[in-house]
Design brief:
577 residues; alpha/beta; Spore Coat Polysaccharide Biosynthesis Protein SpsA, Chain A; 10-stranded mixed beta sheet; 19% strand; elongated
């Protein structure tokens, strides 16, 4: 009997060799690549595989069925790239496919999370159909069941194999969060295709009761507590998946119900009737000119000399969707200095269209370094320090021009009006938000701590401007989740640098009490409930930020602990390596 291994992949260069080495014994390996941007396809070509490249458009199961369709074997072993067939299971499979009576087999999947086999949370035993005769099973559409497994025509002729196959689900929390966004988007689309609709009166059940029950079931009923921190994180993330998937369903409903408003909020939305996502928002920039920095001419004063009164400084990273709006609003300034944190989109190209001074610098994850570099490079007497998603209104521009004339003032607070998913947020502590953004050069700098803002000594020379600075923080939930991972990583590194360490006895306080108190404060004390769903999401995400930042701190501690153990066991090994 001939056996074909069918696998679908997307950016799996870290897993691909391990996977292919474990199934080299098969008669055929069919790989369907979902437009990978890494070295996945290159690695596949090193092996004897049938490689197809196709865009799944989010329907991963369509690719799984395509791989099965292209396979020539009588039997199909349908796998993912992060799964590994052990030698014992390989021998069992070779014997099993000789049977004339069976049409399919359940395989027992052993799930490994952050390097450890997970026994609780319903992750083990995990019996799933993965081995079947061609034509006897297929994957359901993701719109029908994103969680689905191959559907077998005759379950009475399905057997069970004894030896497990290994599933290295996530090797890091960053990898988990990267897939979290895609997974919740697919799940939100599935809910929409199934006809599920959210009403305001269903919010408590959908966004509170369901996630809470999922967590309690995973952690207590399915004994996730036996797996320590990993079980806690898996239980929390399962609840978060449900919350965010329904949040994306709400976002999709809102966009479909308000196409004209959504078109103004999300560029290009009115035509497509789809919410703006990180996948369709921009195309990848190709070549960026290396003739940097670009420079602009300082404006001439009436006496023929050259002076710069006000410099606008902006630190950016992949901000092509916001940058034009920001730059258009400050074209009146004497100078615009932009420091780019190694953007991979059209950020640098857009800056070249404007009268800007452009620098590129890798901040190594400390974004305030680039804010200070922009201030250092500015020639103005006054600095207006902005982010690319902020906009100076004409009224504020006029107020700024008047404010920088007095000689006795050092800095000004600006009142920032924060927008989330197209709406001004009044609760959650987001308004009023007075921040120092306009100051004399040399009067202050950005602290390197992530939560800190510029501060000024001498309050008598500090003023307040009336008109607000507009902050379009996130235009879609996908954009929020993309930044969420980077932000929590920076918070984690800051915690570690400050000497914070997690002990087992501190888990209840750090992972339960602190996030719960943050949510209650944001939603009730700071009246996030006034902002409807948006206030609920902001409150939940604030709690999730604290949880995930400490989860990454735990991960960082584990990494350093293993390094120290290796150094003690083999002195000098790391230095030689």
């Amino acid at each position: 009997m001939k056996l074909s291994v069918a696998v679908t992949v997307k950016n799996e260069e870290n897993n691909m060799r391990r996977f292919l080495d474990a199934v080299k014994w098969a008669d055929e390996i069919v790989v369907v690549d979902d437009m990978s941007s890494d070295r996945t396809a290159e690695i596949c070509r090193e092996y004897n595989v049938v490689l197809l490249v196709d865009d799944s458009h989010g329907d991963v199961h369509k690719h799984k069925n395509l791989a099965i369709e292209k396979a020539a074997g009588e039997w199909i072993l349908s796998l993912d790239a992060d799964e590994v067939i052990t030698p014992e299971l390989a021998d069992e499979i070779k014997a099993a496919i000789k049977s004339e009576d069976m049409t399919a087999y359940y395989l027992n999947r052993r799930n490994i999370f952050l390097g450890k086999w997970i026994r609780g949370c319903g992750w083990y035993p995990d019996h799933i159909i993965r081995l079947f005769r061609k034509g006897e099973a297929e994957w359901p559409s993701v719109t029908e069941s994103f969680h689905g497994t191959p559907e077998v025509k005759d379950k009475n002729r399905a057997g069970y194999l004894k030896n497990p196959f290994l599933h290295y689900s996530y090797v890091s929390l960053d990898q988990y969060l990267e897939k979290f966004g895609r997974y919740t988007s697919a799940l939100g689309r599935q809910y929409s295709a199934q006809g599920r609709r959210l009403k305001w009166y269903s919010f408590p059940a959908v966004f509170v009761v369901r996630p809470a029950l999922i967590f309690l079931r995973k952690y207590f009923l399915l004994k996730g507590f036996r797996d320590g921190f990993r079980g806690l994180f898996i239980s929390f993330s399962a609840a978060a998946v449900e919350f965010v998937a329904y949040a994306k369903l709400w976002e999709l409903q809102w966009c479909q119900a308000n196409p004209e408003i959504a078109g103004e909020t999300f560029p290009g939305l009115a035509k497509s009737s789809k919410c703006l996502t990180m996948d369709n928002r921009c195309e990848k920039q190709e070549n960026i000119s290396k003739d940097l920095p670009w420079t602009c001419q300082a404006k001439e004063t009436p006496d023929g000399g050259k002076s710069v009164k006000l410099s606008v400084t902006i630190a950016v990273r992949n901000e092509e969707s916001n940058l034009r709006r920001c730059l258009d609003a400050v074209k009146w300034a004497d100078e615009i200095v932009v420091v780019d944190d190694m953007s991979s989109d059209k950020t640098a190209e857009i800056c070249g269209e404007y009268n800007t001074i452009f620098y590129r610098n890798d901040s190594q994850g400390s974004f305030h370094v680039n804010k200070n570099l922009a201030i250092e490079k500015a020639a103005g007497d006054w600095i207006l320090s902005l982010d690319a998603d902020e906009v100076v209104s004409p009224e504020l521009a006029d107020e700024i021009k008047a404010a920088i004339r007095p000689e006795n003032m050092t800095a000004y607070y600006l009142s920032r009006k924060n927008f989330f998913l197209g709406k001004w947020i009044r609760g959650c502590g987001w308004y009023p938000e007075n921040i120092i953004r306009l100051f004399r050069k040399g009067a202050t700098r950005w602290p390197l701590q992530i939560h800190e803002v510029p501060k000024i000594e001498g309050k008598d020379r500090l003023g307040y401007l009336k008109n607000p600075l507009l902050h379009y923080s996130y235009v879609s939930l996908d954009q929020y989740l993309e930044k969420f991972s980077r932000y929590t990583s920076r918070v984690c590194r800051e915690y570690y640098a400050r000497g914070r360490r997690l002990k087992r006895h501190s888990y209840p306080a750090v992972f339960v009490i602190r996030p719960a108190l943050i949510f209650l404060r944001k939603y009730f004390l700071l009246q996030g409930f006034r902002d409807g769903f948006r206030g609920l999401f902001i409150s939940f995400s604030a709690a999730a930020t604290e949880f995930v930042a400490y989860a990454k701190l735990w991960e960082l501690q584990e990494f350093h602990a293993k390094q120290e153990a290796a150094d003690k066991a083999l002195p000098g090994l790391r230095k030689e390596a």
